[in-house]
Amino acid sequence: MLRLEQVSKNFGGLPALSNVTFPVAQGQLTALIGPNGAGKSTLINCITGVLDPSQGSITFQNREIAGQPTHIISRLGIARTFQNLKIFPRLTVLDNVLTGLTSEGGDSMLMAMLRLPALRHRERRLRLRAMEALDRFQLADKATWPAGILAYGDKKRVELARATVGNPQLLLLDEPVAGLNAEETAAVGEQLRRLRSSGHTMLLVEHDMDLVMELADRVVVLDSGKCIALGSPDEIRRNPLVLEAYLGRTEAIA
Question: pTM for this one?
Answer without folding.
Answer: 0.85
